[in-house]
Design brief:
- This protein folds into 3 domains: 88 residues, Ankyrin repeat-containing domain (Serine Threonine Protein Phosphatase 5, Tetratricopeptide repeat), CATH 1.25.40.20; 127 residues, Ankyrin repeat-containing domain (Serine Threonine Protein Phosphatase 5, Tetratricopeptide repeat), CATH 1.25.40.20; 41 residues.
- It is built from 17 helices and no strands.
- Helix 4 runs antiparallel to helix 5, helix 8 runs antiparallel to helix 9 and helix 11 runs parallel beside helix 13.
- The radius of gyration is 22 Å and the shape is elongated.
């Protein structure tokens, strides 16, 4: 029976489309289908947990792709290679992040999974953004994932989040200090937001200091990728013609200076709640409860 990946992946669909599912072992099948008891019996019977299919997918890849937490635990405890790479270079952690399986991600990290792969390759953080899994994005950042990890084809995780219109992932990255103006062939996340016609993303990126005048390798600004009088065109035209307020500029300057420490440091400044919320890009508290403000 063919097992289909149940999540988006930049590279995984390529390998799947080639039909490399021959010679899959019983261990692969049990792991993919979440048959923990069957998997346990196979392991106890001496089955190899690191056996690979033709496309170099291991049983651990299978379990992570499908978010089968129990099977992941069994395989890891039996000595499965936590950083095994398949034909497209993905590790089990990449697959777990893409699937949005927070528990699988935690297990893999506990067993020493590599959070940051070699330079210029698609990282687990990229995969979490690709799948729109903001909880996994936050967890990966918390354990040290590089937010400026740069894939030679897709850019940074922020580029991926914006290209896929995953607003929550983009906000998590920006709140954690991701470089809003990181460029891929001079193309910024704001260019992506303009191309996908997402006004909410455009406003979010600009609030975090996105450069509306940045030009890509074709010499185009984000507004050049919008249609005349479209919502995105009107939005970008407004920001081009209306300078940011002193409040906004001050917030951006503070966030730039503090970087990844911003959320923690701002909360320690002893400022009124409303100012702290503003600087942290959080909704203002209820005025009736905000006694510090008065």
């Amino acid at each position: 029976m063919e097992i289909t990946r149940a999540r988006p992946s930049l590279f995984g669909d390529i390998a799947h489309g080639l039909g490399f599912w021959t010679d899959r072992s019983a261990v692969h099948e049990a792991a993919a289908q979440g048959k923990a008891l069957q998997l346990q019996k196979l392991i106890q019977g001496g089955a190899a947990v690191n056996i690979v299919a033709v496309d170099s997918i291991t049983p651990l890849h299978e379990a992570c792709i499908q978010g089968q937490t129990q099977c992941v635990r069994l395989l890891l405890d039996a000595g499965a290679h936590v950083d095994a790479r398949n034909i497209d270079g993905s590790t089990p952690l990449c697959d777990a992040c893409a699937a949005g399986s927070l528990e699988c991600v935690k297990l893999l990290i506990q067993h020493g999974a590599t959070v940051n792969p070699p330079l210029f390759t698609f990282s687990p953080l990229h995969e979490a953004c690709m799948g729109g899994n903001s909880d996994c994005v936050q967890l990966m950042i918390d354990v040290g994932a590089l937010m400026e990890a740069h894939d030679c084809h897709f850019g940074t995780p922020l580029h991926v989040a914006c290209a896929r219109q995953h607003f929550d992932c983009a906000k998590v990255l920006l709140n954690a200090g991701a470089n809003v103006n990181a460029a891929k062939l001079h193309e910024t996340a704001l260019h992506h937001a303009a191309k996908v016609k997402n006004v909410d993303l455009i406003e979010l990126l600009i609030e975090f200091g996105g450069n509306i005048y940045a030009r890509d390798n074709l010499g185009k600004k984000p507004i050049n990728y919008t249609s005349q009088r479209s919502p995105t065109n009107i939005c970008l035209e407004f920001y081009e013609n209306t300078p940011l307020s002193l409040q906004q500029i001050s917030r951006i300057a503070l966030r730039t200076a503090l970087g990844r420490r911003a959320l923690d440091d701002v909360s320690k400044l002893g400022l009124p709640n409303r100012i702290t919320c503003y600087l942290s890009y959080q909704p203002p508290p209820d005025l009736d409860l905000d006694f510090d403000y008065f």
